[in-house]
Amino acid sequence: MSISQLEKWNQRHREAEHEGQPAQVLLRNLQLLPNAGRALDLACGRGASALLLAQQGLETHAWDFSPVALTRLEQLAARRGLQVHTQCRDVVAQPPEAESFDVILVSFFLERKLAPQLIAALRPGGRIYYQTFTREVYLGRGPSTPEWRLEKNELLHLFRELDVHYYREDGSATRVKTDISDLALLVAAKGV
Ligand SMILES: C[S@@+](CC[C@H](N)C(=O)[O-])C[C@H]1O[C@@H](n2cnc3c(N)ncnc32)[C@H](O)[C@@H]1O
Q: What is the topology classification, in CATH, of domain 3-189?
C-alpha cells in the first residue's frame, strides 16, 4: 500500500456527499444469506453493504485501510442503531484468516491474488458475494485501467472451486442502462 493511494481514498471518502449504495450483488441476493453467522465487507469504503449485512442480523465486520471511510461508517451505524465491527486494515497485507467468515462481500475492489485466501477464509458452507466492473462495457463507467476490470467470466474462473449460486455479467450484450450495466456479479459457496 502506498501513502498516495491511501491519501487518494481518504480524500474521496472525505468529500463524498452520501454513504453510497449497498452492492447490487447483495441487494439482489439477500435470500442467499445465512440466518446467522459472521460476515465481512472487505475494502468496505463507507460501508453501505456492511450496514445492510448488519441489518440482516449477521455479526458484521468491515475492513478498509481508510480511517476516514471507517469513521463515517461508524457514525452512520451508531445513528441507525446497528453494530458493525470496523477495522483499519490493509487487506492485501493482512487478508482474513482461514475459515473465519460465513459471508465475505467484495464490491468494487479487485485484487486477484487474494482469491485463494478469500476462499480459504470461508467457513464450510460460507458464501462469497463479489461484484466489480467488466472490461466489456455498455455504459463505459468505472476505472479506465484495464487491469482493474474483469475479463469475461473471470469471477467464475477466480472462484472456480466454489459452487456458483448466482452469476450475472452485463457487458456489451445489454442494450439498456441498469444498475448492473458493466458489472459482473457472483455469489458462490464453499462445500460443507
Ligand atoms: C472503489 S472503493 C469500494 C468501496 C465499497 N466496497 C463500495 O462498494 O462502495 C475501494 C475501497 O478499497 C479500499 N482499499 C483500497 N486498497 C485497500 C487495501 N489494500 N486494504 C484495504 N482497503 C483498501 C479504499 O479505501 C476504498 O474504500
A: Rossmann fold (3.40.50)
User: Which residue blocks in 81-164 are alpha helix, DSSP H?
Assistant: 115-121, 154-158
- E strand or H helix that includes residue 70: helix 67-80
Q: Is the pTM of this model over 0.90?
A: yes
Sketch the domain layout of the chain as residue ranges.
3-189
Cα 69 to middle of ligand 1, angstroms: 9
Tens-digit pLDDT profile for residues 15-65? 999 889 999 999 999 999 999 999 999 999 999 999 999 999 999 999 999
User: 45 C-alpha to center of ligand 1: Å?
Assistant: 5
Residue 56 CA to ligand 1 center (angstroms) comes to 22
